[in-house]
Amino acid sequence: MSGSSKVEMQQEVVFLCGPPFSGKELYYAQHFSQTHQRIRPQELFQADPFLGLRAVTLKVANLLNKGHSVVIDDGNSNKKTRKSYFNILKNKVPYCTYRAINFHTPTTDGLLICQLAREWEMAYQFECICRNVPFQDTAKDVEHWCEKTALDTPDEEEGFNEIIQVEVQLICDTPFKFVVPALFLQWESLFQDKEEGRSHLHNAAIAAINKWSHSNSFGRIIVLRLNEKQQCGKCACVDEMKEVVKELATKGSVPVFFVHVCAFPWNFERPPNPGLFAWLQRLHTIDLSHRATFFVWSHDSYHNAAMAAGIKCIKASKLFKSPEMINSVLCGLTSQLPLYVKNARLIWSGSLHRLAACVPLFHRVASFHDSTNARDVMVTNNQFYHGVYFKDLETFQSYNSRYQEVAIPTEPASKDLFKKKSCQVPSEQDTCTKEGTPLNIDINTYKLEAAKISPDKQSVDKTMVQPSSKLSTPDFYTLSVN
User: Fold this and answer.
1) Largest CA distance in the chain
2) CA 181 to CA 221: how far, in whole Å?
3) 8 Å CB contact between 294 and 277
4) Do 258 and 222 touch, CB atoms closer than 8 A?
5) Cis, bond preceding 272 (omega within 30 deg of 0)
6) For 386-396, how does the pLDDT look when each residue is reduced to its tens digit (9 = 90+)?
7) Distance CA 96, CA 14 (A)
8) What are 9-56's pLDDT values in tens digits?
9) CA dihedral sign, ordered 206, 211, 217, 221
10) For the segment 455-470, what is each residue's pLDDT rounded down to a tens digit?
11) Cα 61–21–59 angle (5° rounding)?
12) I need a labelling partner for 132 at 20 to 30 A (CA). Which of 126, 189, 326, 391 fits?
């Protein structure tokens, strides 16, 4: 009997509090995955839009009564919502203890960190759909969080036994480091005469691309066409882009990738915001600060987006007058990566048997080429197209092998990845710790600084009160091989 009581006293409920993509997923994996059951209210609400807060809380209580500790993985930004949890749980499971893990976003760049982390997660999901794993749309998560006008930081008076503050930092879960140089090319910059239907490639553009690829044989050449006004689907603009990319690839020595955006799923990807470049950085393991990474531009908004990502830029009209400068003058320039990107931590939290390094879409090319003899592969969801064109399969295989030779595996994630400080709540004078160093702090004056960004209008706080009636289903990607 006493042994059972001892087990019960060790049970706890942990509230993960913070915006989407702030590191809660990784924190749970490192600190609680072996000891706690996880409840994700948003997933429950999406599965059953008529589910309420009480039903979710009773699921938590049921797990506690079965002897499990529980992590509630959500924004948990509203004090009234947390109070509702407490009111039911303290009645149903009186022996339980409570802990809050508050993910604190810096006031200057905390929102940007979460937005960039979201782009990196979307790049990972693109890799998954290229392996036939369903796509999960999270485009609205961060924006909804930012729309909220107030943030209720966890407080000891609510009933928490401990409050831990975790400093949000930019962390990328990736099997390989960002080492690849890239030449980004704005679609509109490639043509000699824009008044003639953009049908003729600029000869100097081809010369500059070939000079660059000769010096960067494993680097990425990526053509970007961003036009929200076009309603694409299977429209002529996609076919036109493929024909141009085909010409670039057949006149060069390396595959050429292309991105065509018809509609931006969220604002951070729309120029002059840098979201699209962050997505490509993770997908292609691009080193944005590499001496050979550039963006060739002709429109100011795209130029500003590349600059915001820290990419060196050169105007097309200037480069095409002297294509040889691509490997001489330009490589002497210094990139201006934002500090939070420069200090980003690249780690690997997956299994020790990670997949072999390969360029994006390589597995698609290998699996379809034998039966179709195709020289291009494209993945699309009718708003966004990403594809590659290559001379022949041997060229693409050789290109992939060169990347494998330079790919560098990231280090496994460690438990000291997060900077945090904790404070035991019950006593009047308690000992707080930060990175292992004890600090004597009067608990009555200890307050966690609230993040200066706004949470999600459709967060658990409102969904718990009223059933959700607007749950959208994301489009799934389809493959096109020609």
Assistant:
1) 86
2) 9
3) no
4) yes
5) yes
6) 999 998 888 99
7) 11
8) 479 999 999 989 999 999 999 899 999 999 999 889 989 999 999 999
9) negative
10) 343 333 333 333 333 3
11) 10
12) 391
Q: Which segments of 130-235 does DSSP mark as H helices, in order?
A: 141-146, 203-215
- The Cα–Cα gap between 294 and 272 comes to 16
CA-CA distance, 292 to 189, in Å (whole number)?
19
> What 3-state DSSP class applies to 468?
coil
Length of the chain measured in residues: 482
CA angle 237, 239, 245 (to 5 degrees): 100
What's CA 325's distance to the chain center, in Å?
Answer: 34
Domains and CATH numbers, the chain: 9-169+418-463 (3.40.50.300), 182-411 (3.40.50.1000)
Radius of gyration, alpha carbons of the chain: 25
Query: What tokens were used for 260?
Result: 């065509």
Q: Which residues of 392-403 are buried (b: 16+ CB within 10 A; e: fewer)?
A: eeebbebbbebb
- b/e per residue, 56-68, with b = 16+ CB within 10 A? bbebbbebbeeee
The structure tokens listed for 421 are: 């400080």
